[in-house]
Amino acid sequence: MNAFDREMEGPALLHYGDGDYVVLQPGGYVVCAVSRQRVPLEALRYWSVQRQEPYAGAREALQGFAPPRS
Question: Rounded to an integer, what distance in angstroms lies between the CA atom of residue 18 and that of residue 10?
């Protein structure tokens, strides 16, 4: 293990844009806003630009995009 490996153990902080994201704080994963499961950065494909939150997959993204029930 080298010094850079320690940075990749925890959660990353990202800024989500249209089609890409910027790493603000290095880490190995983000936490899905719906399922709370860890999503490795290399597997991250779904997020909300408006809400600035990541999703584990298409199902979670659809749940995240849905308007709240009243």
Answer: 25
Q: Where are the alpha helices (DSSP H) in the chain?
A: 3-7, 58-65
Structural Rg of the chain based on CA atoms: 13
What is the Cα–Cα distance from 67 to 70, expressed in whole angstroms?
9
38, β-bridge pairs = 31
Length of the chain: 70
State yes or no: pLDDT of 19 exceeds 90. yes
Is residue 7 pLDDT above 80, yes or no?
A: no
Q: What is the DSSP letter of 7?
A: H
Which residue has 């089609």 as its token pair?
19
- Do 15 and 52 meet the contact criterion of CB atoms below 8 Å apart? yes
